[in-house]
Amino acid sequence: MTRAANSLELPSSDANEQERGATFRPKFDANGLLTAVAVDDATGDILMLAHMDRTALAATLETGEVHYYSRSRGKLWKKGETSGQIQTVRRILVDCDQDALVIRVTVGGDGGACHTGARSCFYRALGEDGTLVRPED
After folding, report:
1. What is the CATH number of domain 2-133?
2. For labelling alongside 57, which of 98, 103, 124, 137 has CA 20 to 30 A away?
3. Which residues does the UniProt record annotate as the domain Phosphoribosyl-AMP cyclohydrolase (predicted)?
């Protein structure tokens, strides 16, 4: 993945090239971020949604371990650096206009992803009555 990290090109002004071309041209938003969704590679379960800036994306591509940009802390964040829940990249899927990624990962430590201790940040569902329920309950 190191080669990809060294060649992060600017988005193309040609929509066809951006949407159908073979060149990775991540399209960061006005804040310099793109959306990243981490998915468990073995189960397909959604683990978390976070954001990456150019530095986080480059670090992820260089190391094979997922890095994000923490909006609350305003800095680079290597997932699992303190918890042991390192996310190792298995595959990165890029959406049509290259402004969002799905990152298929394996997770170290206890296999969790959420700061609450839950395996996934998506541990609640919106019930028919408008309340939040835990699907496993």
Report:
1. 3.10.20.810
2. 124
3. 48-123
CA distances from 136 to 7, 20, 51, 110 (A): 43, 40, 27, 19
Helical (H) or strand (E) element with 2? helix 2-5
Tokens of 13: 């002004």
- Please report, in range form, the residues annotated as the binding site for Zn(2+): 96, 114, 121
Q: Copy the structure tokens of residue 120.
A: 């996934």
As annotated, the binding site for Mg(2+) includes 95, 97, 99
Please state the pTM of the whole predicted model.
Answer: 0.87
What is d(CA 132, CA 24) in angstroms, rounded to the nearest whole number?
Answer: 38
The answer to whether 96 and 19 are in contact (CB under 8 A) is yes
pLDDT tens track for 62-98 = 999 999 999 999 999 999 898 999 999 999 999 999 9
Binding residue positions: 95-97, 99, 114, 121
